[in-house]
Amino acid sequence: MRTKALPMRTAAQPGRTEAQRAGDAAERLAAERLEGEGWRILGRQVHAGRSELDLVAVDPGPPARLVVVEVRWRRSRGFGLAEETFDAAKRRRLRAGLGRLLAAGRLPHGGALPELPPAVDLVVVEPGPEPGGRPRLRHHRDALG
After folding, report:
1. pTM to 2 decimals?
2. Count of C-beta atoms within a 10 Å radius of residue 52
3. More confident position, 104 or 127
4. How many independent structural domains does the chain possess?
5. What angle do CA 5, 19, 68 make, to 5 degrees?
């Protein structure tokens, strides 16, 4: 049985910058792609202490995993690949956020976390090769290595 994903902040939300709205759209695309592959999205923009986790999801596997998904968006490759921004400091913050989430055992809205092995994945969203075309997504599993 599939549960509904939590509502995500929308572009119409007051106080969101253009960059934040673009990030929201990238997170929405990543969530839609993962759901299309059978994943269950448990939460979006989940706050665990001072950390914001873009997506928290269940990867059906095999093996099934509880996954924090970091979504990176780039308008172009002019300043390098989005993967290059997934640096040691960001990895450290994600580890800390995942640790706080696991210690709580629940999502901030009260939903219980499934007892599955945890992981962190990276999903990169870039514009497609044609202007106005479909964005490209790259999914890097177990991105913390």
Report:
1. 0.83
2. 12
3. 104
4. 1
5. 40
Contact 56, 101 (CB under 8 A): yes
Q: Is there a contact between 140 and 124 (Cβ–Cβ < 8 Å)?
A: yes
Is 145 part of a structural domain of the chain? no
Say if 88 falls within a structural domain. Answer: yes
Average pLDDT for residues 101-110, to the nearest whole number?
A: 92
In a domain, 136, yes or no: yes
Both structure tokens of 61? 């596997």
Query: What per-residue confidence (pLDDT) applies to 19?
Result: 81
Residues 6+ apart with CB under 8 A from 107: 42, 43, 46, 56, 101, 113
Residue with tokens 């099934």: 64
Q: What CATH number corresponds to the domain at position 88?
A: 3.40.1350.10
Residues in the chain: 145
What is the residue type of 34? L
pLDDT tens per residue across span 51-65: 999 999 999 999 999
Sheet with 65-73: list strands edge to edge: 40-48, 51-59, 65-73, 118-126, 136-140
